[in-house]
Amino acid sequence: MPRDPLIGLVGKPSAGKSSTLNSLTDASSKVGNFPFTTIDPQRAIGYLQIDCACARFGVSDRCKPNYGSCINGRRSVPIELLDVAGLVPGAHQGKGLGNKFLDDLRHADALIHVVDVSGTTDAEGKVTRGYDPSVDIAWLRSEIVAWIRGNLMEKWGSIRRRHIAVKAAAVETLQNQFSGYGSTATVVARTLDKLALKEPLEEWSDETIDRVVQAFTDEKFPTVIALNKIDHPDADKNIAKIAKMQDPNTIVLCSAISEIFLRKLAKQGYVRYTEGSEFVDTREDLIADGDPDGGGLKELDDKIKNRIENLKDMVLYRFGSTGVNQVLSKAAEILGLTPVFPVRNTTTFASGANESKAVFRDCVLVKKNSTVADVGKKLMGDAPIAYIEGAGGIRVAEDHIVAVGKNDVLSFKIGRA
């Protein structure tokens, strides 16, 4: 069955990867019965922010997810995260935890590379000043490319001979080699289509093989660059440099430690803060706005007040938010993830017992260009499906593509057609 999407977090020591992971997985402010869960020491559940179907159908007041939360049509959907440890230069040669790092990496569908954009930690995470963080971005990709290319070239002679002997297609031969990285024939086909190579595989030069490996790396491991510690004074010049070197659509500016700080204060009743927002209100702010009780918030000491004001100036007002929610959203965007809402009744949108008034209890994330049949297999396994209904009870064909607002509310009727 199609597996759930998996997002890998990578980053050198002291880049803020742990803080970013914690800020993505903190469910203390969520409503629902899906608390922060560590699946194992390396896997955890984060929350992707999406627009829920309940808003589209005007039933937000009755939307009660089984997992995550939905507040005024803005839904938090669980998504699995993988903490990929051991990132140091030379990982493909086994340095640090290199072998484990690369082995863990292959399970991910996309990567979030947490980069210390302040330049205050060197390549190995040691404290310094004036380090160029763009170097970290370059060598992460070069490590992955070197790992894949090394494995391929080690056996290239026998790969080529077998390819000729069995008269295989290039996609088939490469997929046999790349399947160990969690690849599929579709990923390999897209890689070769983008390169539009004219020469047959058996005539590929070393340069052509390099191009294939580089293109495959980009296709198999699309990467979001999370520029962390944006509140540091040295961050601006490094952000400007990186923005000129990288696709701006892959960059997110964030301050994970600021997000954790604000959520902690909100949980303790000192501020009013909605995660991902640019606004944070203290008791004094609410009193000034006409609420004599200050929203029931606790008093803050001067030290915390000053820290909040600095955070507003350096992060929230400058960048619009701490950027943490946008990190996962960007990863979902580059993967083309689509939320699908399975229901029992496509008129009332209920999923449980007939008398239940709760709607859109479940939401699953599927990959780009998934069909209705793909969703059915993910949800129902090999159970026989008699027919499928979309919103309003309209029959839906198995080969229809799901997209936001199109074939994304589905009911699978069990039985023989």
Kindly describe this structure.
The longest helix has 21 residues, at 134-154. β4 and β5 form a beta hairpin. The chain has helices spanning 17-25, 53-56, 98-105, 134-154, 156-166, 170-178, 185-195, 206-220, 235-245, 256-267, 283-288, 302-319, 324-335, 372-380; strands at 6-10, 38-40, 43-51, 69-71, 74-83, 110-116, 223-228, 251-253, 271-273, 280-282, 338-342, 364-366, 385-389, 409-414. The protein has 14 helices and 14 strands. Strands 1, 2, 3, 4, 5, 6, 7 and 8 form an 8-stranded mixed sheet that branches. The protein has a 4-stranded mixed sheet with strand order 12-11-14-13, with helices on one face. The chain has a two-stranded antiparallel sheet with strand order 9-10. InterPro entries: Beta-grasp_dom_sf (IPR012675), G_OBG (IPR031167), GTP-bd (IPR006073), P-loop_NTPase (IPR027417), YGR210-like_G4 (IPR013646). GO terms for molecular function: ATP hydrolysis activity; GTP binding. Pfam families: MMR_HSR1 (PF01926), YGR210-like_G4 (PF08438).
Key descriptive features of the protein:
417 residues; alpha/beta; eight-stranded mixed sheet; four-stranded mixed sheet; 14 strands; flat
